[in-house]
Amino acid sequence: ETGMVTIDPGYKNTGSCESAVTFLDGEKGILRYRGYSIEELAEKADFLEVAYLLIFGELPNKAQLAKFHSDIKEESQVDEEMKKILDGFPKSAHPMGVLSSLTSALVAFNPTSVDVSSETAMYNSIVRILAKFPVLVAWTLRKKKGLPLDYGDDSLGYVENIHKMMFKRPNQEYKKDPIAIDALDKLLILHADHEQNCSTSTVRIVGSSHAGLFASLSAGISALWGPLHGGANQAVLEMLEAIEADGGDTKKYMAKAKDKDDPFRLMGFGHRVYKNFDPRAKIIKKAADDVLGNLGIQDPILDIAKGLEKEALEDPYFVDRKLYPNVDFYSGIIYRALGIPTEMFTVMFALGRLPGWIAQWREMRLRKEPIGRPRQVYIGENLRSFVPLEKR
Ligand code: SDX
Known about the structure:
Elements: E1 22-25, E2 30-33, E3 36-37, H1 38-44, H2 47-56, H3 62-74, H4 82-87, H5 95-109, H6 119-145, H7 158-167, H8 178-190, H9 198-207, H10 213-225, H11 232-245, H12 250-258, H13 279-294, H14 300-314, H15 316-320, H16 327-337, H17 345-366
Antiparallel strand pairs: 1-2, 2-3
Bound molecules: s-citryldethia Coenzyme A (SDX).
């Protein structure tokens, strides 16, 4: 029986599916969504366009994009009862736990049948979650800050509206902030999909049991929360702040990262697939300079990050293991400049990854993939007889 299977911990050499959504080449540092390079999309597209591209496979024309956005606006109300669930959390609750719970709770307020009975049913579920998820994200931020919850404004663009729901101050007119909105749009595009990463594989495997879209996404949010995955963007900022508090002693942290007896890792470095620069990290690093420059912010944390990167890129331990900065290394610096609390960084990653999760879930269901159910190699006890309690 055990001859049948080979174990592949972490599925390092296992392909779980065929997919047409995202292509990445780890050696060359290439990332494309539906054939379009991430560099072009980050430069020339906006996040809603990229969401449409990832999910439906083509860039939308004007009419398709307008209809997509208006369909989303139609669905942007979140049932007031959902606020009772949010209120049930202590302020100290981590936003990723709140977001995962609220996403799962959405099922109770949107009891659609299993979302693939028809293209229309699936489209409606997709539009519904693209509309409501940003509201839930904004609510988790405002709860954390003790601010009244806010609803969107249909006159705004998709990302503008997200920015408004997150940052509009009570009893003040919302002031559009083009620099912040452009930075946010670009960051969301750069996070939108990444083939079969841990959280996307989670969304696929939960969906493969024919659990609904919202339930599958809720599971994906939990997987993303881990510090080895999306949670790394929060861990990077905590690491950089610790280095700053230590007088900028990057050498101490580099030594810790190399010490096998020390569980500490250089957060924001390394990647399962990229054995060269993560193309997203390159774009985000440049965007960090631009955004901080445009906002007139001098952040010593950015200088520490650059110093750490420079040292690591010259250190044999990291060079030999092909460890380069990944998407999480610089993103937190921009989030911080935009006034987003560190604990919310991974929520922002989830907001960006939402279209990718949806696209991969939809593809998995349309291709009628079988339920995910791997085997194992059994290493436990052989058959043995029961011992009554009095004899143990
Ligand atoms: C994301 O998969 C995706 O696509 C994910 C993602 C996406 O868009 O969905 O790109 C987003 O999750 C980016 C990664 C964010 N995580 C971090 O920044 C956390 C720190 N990085 C690592 O823990 C690690 O690099 C991983 C988790 C990213 C990858 O781990 P692997 O592929 O399982 O590699 P490994 O743990 O086997 O490491 C190989 C070697 C080991 O040393 P040796 O045993 O060979 O001596 O490299 C070392 C590791 O100890 N190593 C590190 C390190 N990362 C790997 N040593 C110090 N610091 C690090 N960051």
